[in-house]
Write a structure and sequence with these properties.
49 residues
Length: 49
């Protein structure tokens, strides 16, 4: 399970990088979740030789 704080931080970084647009909070939250999950899967996959 993802830690909410990690997702929040990533979503905030994405929002800032995009120029702080209004009314797209959910988009950035979902993208942050996706990125973190992808990273977790990569780590999990690289550990299994």
């Amino acid at each position: 399970m993802m830690r909410r704080g990690k997702v929040r931080t990533r979503a905030y970084e994405l929002w800032e990088q995009a120029g702080r647009p209004s009314n797209r909070e959910l988009d950035f939250w979902l993208e942050a979740e996706r990125q973190i999950e992808d990273e977790r899967e990569e780590r999990k996959g690289s550990g299994a030789s």
